[in-house]
Amino acid sequence: MAVQDLHKATDPKYAVFMRSESGHSAKFTYLHESLESAIESCRKFAASAASHGKLDFTYYAVEIKHRVGIEHGKIVDQAME
Q1: For the segment 12-48, what is each residue's pLDDT rounded down to a tens digit?
Q2: Structural domains of the chain, ranges and CATH numbers in brackets
Q3: pTM attached to this predicted model
Q4: Rounded to whole angstroms, what are the CA distances from 74 to 59, 69, 70, 77?
Q5: 21, 56 in Cβ contact below 8 A?
């Protein structure tokens, strides 16, 4: 699921981040329901990056533990179950 579809996500548990070339940030790219799916996505992205000649990249499969913010006009501060 792409980040653009995040507003439709009901309970994503894992996300894929891509480290910037400078190493100063990581961009949130995709949501996944399982760790295995997130890891496989990282592997596919890494293979694609390498095949395009990129030599400095890292993809991270991370578990979403908590969210804080405003969603659909309501304050959210809750642990992910």
Answers
A1: 789 999 987 777 888 887 888 899 999 999 999 999 9
A2: 3-79 (3.10.20)
A3: 0.75
A4: 32, 8, 5, 10
A5: yes
